[in-house]
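for the writeup, i need someone to sanity check this before i put it in the appendix. the sequnce is what the collaborator sent (i think, or maybe the updated version? ugh). structure was predicted straight from it, no edits. if anything looks off just tell me and ill rerun, i have time this weekend
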Amino acid sequence: MGGEIQGQVALVTGANRGIGKSILEAFLKEGAAKVYAAVRKPESVAALTGVYGDRVVPLELDLTKPELINKVAEVASDVTLVVNNAGVLTKTSALDADVIEALQYEIDTNVYGLIRVVQAFAPVLKANGGGMLVQVNSIASLKNVPEFTTYCASKAAAYSVTQALKQILADQGTTVISIHPGPTATDMGDDAGFEVADPPELVADAVVAAIKSGQFHQFAGSMAETMGAAYQSFAAEVIE
């Protein structure tokens, strides 16, 4: 079931730059009452608070630290919309010497981090009427690219967990959405070496559209939309 962003209290992880920052600003444009910017370094949100004032609330959060996540959930007890956007990426293939370490690093943030956020915030969302959980996954969750073997594996695992959460959280009235961007022009995208990438604002627009429609799958970007069209039948008939 879809909903409006107007008047909602949101929390966005990794909201100080890239996709997260674009999502935060899109929510404010749509009339969100307040957005918690959950980031590793709260001082990195200073420019946003300078523009939006107390509608942006910086909070320290690291997806690998359960104690910080639980503390944030206590502070942000009025949240009705949670967007888990933060993540990490390495360029590691299956035959690299450090492949196990790279996979452990990405799983800890991209998969365990999602689970930690949900365990902390599911009770908050339930107490506030159900709300929504948006997980920023990737087209890498559907198709592995050899030079990013471990990243793709971690995003595939996160997508699998997101599918489970769709069913689990439905019982408490929480709508779950899985966003799948293609290559995006962010610091992470630059590190990955993407030659062609979509602007992060396009992903933010996709998040807003998905929230309003309540649609579980949302693909963002030309490459992602092409992949989504090919995947649509399976997604609709099997997953959704």
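The chain has one domain: 9-239. The CA atoms of residues 6 and 30 lie 6 Å apart.
thx in advance!!
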